[in-house]
Design a protein that fits this description.
Radius of gyration: 18 Å
Shape: globular
Largest sheet: 6 strands, parallel
Order of helices and strands: HEHEHEHEHEHEHHH
Structural class: alpha/beta
Distance between the termini: 19 Å
């Protein structure tokens, strides 16, 4: 019946934390976020043969390359638009999936050498991508919950997402004092392009105020999305269910 369902969001594993993650090039905390991310970005660029530039805005795709759920088609169509309007933006795609999508990623890599990279999924590259990129792309058609958009902010990596399902539950519009990412509503290439452009506008802000916002996001994400909080929510839900049964 209506109102009888409850939802509990996924939580990152404890190792998805830049302070302890064994798979990133340099561990870092909130205080050392700027240097830590720059070091990991250079490491990621080296691994993927992207142009070495710690100041380049770097977008990361961590999802399976499958249709229709993850919005692969939007990402593939948006990249050429961004390449023509942002001379330094880079895209890193680390994923397995449908052959046609993999081939499309490889064509983009050939068309934009040093700015677009594709590699098959590996856990190490995926974790390095979260630490070394600036933004995570999540343009899903539908998404029950999702993990990358709650892991990324723990690393100071902001999600650009479609406002649907668990993405809408976990990402709110970014401002200096609140929010953690960039959202678009309609499942269209133009929507994703606009969200990416908003991310690029944020990236063009001076480093000091931008870093303060990222530090806030990192702290809030660690407090909001963690295993301990999910466990508490499950316990509260079971207690409520058992209490109703006793009555």
């Amino acid at each position: 019946e209506e109102g009888d369902a409850s939802g509990i969001l996924n939580a990152p594993m404890p190792a998805a934390d830049p302070r302890v993650d064994p798979l990133i090039h340099r561990k870092y905390d909130v205080r050392h976020m700027v240097r830590g991310k720059q070091s990991n970005k250079l490491g990621l660029q080296g691994e993927l043969e992207l142009r070495a530039d710690p100041k380049a805005p770097l977008f990361f795709w961590p999802h399976r390359l499958v249709s229709p759920q993850k919005g692969v088609e939007l990402m593939l169509a948006a990249i050429p638009f961004i390449m023509t309007t942002s001379p330094t933006a880079q895209f890193a795609i680390v994923a397995n999936g449908q052959v046609d999508h993999v081939n499309a990623c490889r064509r983009l890599m050939s068309a934009f050498p040093g700015r677009v990279a594709y590699r098959a999924f590996s856990r190490a590259l995926s974790q390095l991508g979260k630490a070394g990129s600036d933004f995570i792309l999540c343009p899903s058609l539908y998404e029950p919950c999702g993990i990358p958009q709650v892991e990324g902010p723990r690393y100071g990596t902001l999600p650009s997402v479609r406002q649907t399902g668990g993405l809408a539950d976990t990402v709110t519009p970014l401002s200096p004092s609140k929010g953690n990412g960039f959202l678009f509503r309609e499942y269209q290439v133009a929507g994703l392009v606009e969200a990416i452009r908003e991310a690029l506008d944020f990236y063009e802000q001076p480093l000091r105020p931008r870093a303060r916002i990222l530090q806030r996001v990192m702290l809030e994400s660690s407090q909001q999305f963690n295993i301990a909080r999910s466990v508490d929510q499950y316990i509260e839900l079971y207690q409520e269910i058992l209490g109703e049964k006793v009555v």
